[in-house]
Amino acid sequence: MNQKIAIEPDLTPFKDYLNGKGYNVEQISYDEVPPAEANKYAAFIVSGMNTEFMGISDTNSKAVVIDVKGMTPNQVYNQLKSQIQ
What we know:
Helix content: 10-25%
Largest sheet: 4 strands, parallel
Strand order of the largest sheet: 2-1-3-4
Number of helices: 2
CATH topology: Rossmann fold
CATH class: Alpha Beta
Number of domains: 1
């Protein structure tokens, strides 16, 4: 698998779970990542309040954006599996 996933720093339980499932999860502060670097991630895991971070949804990135609000780590994992090739 080894796909790179970006996740907000305050979502450690999700990071740990996804690492255990074989994803390469990197905690980042989205306001510190230039939009040009968005393409190196297969997905961005965000926490509800930050769904428009750094304009990712406006870039040409094919990355999936998953809002974890109300979701368990397993639900996020299942969503990643279904949306990332």
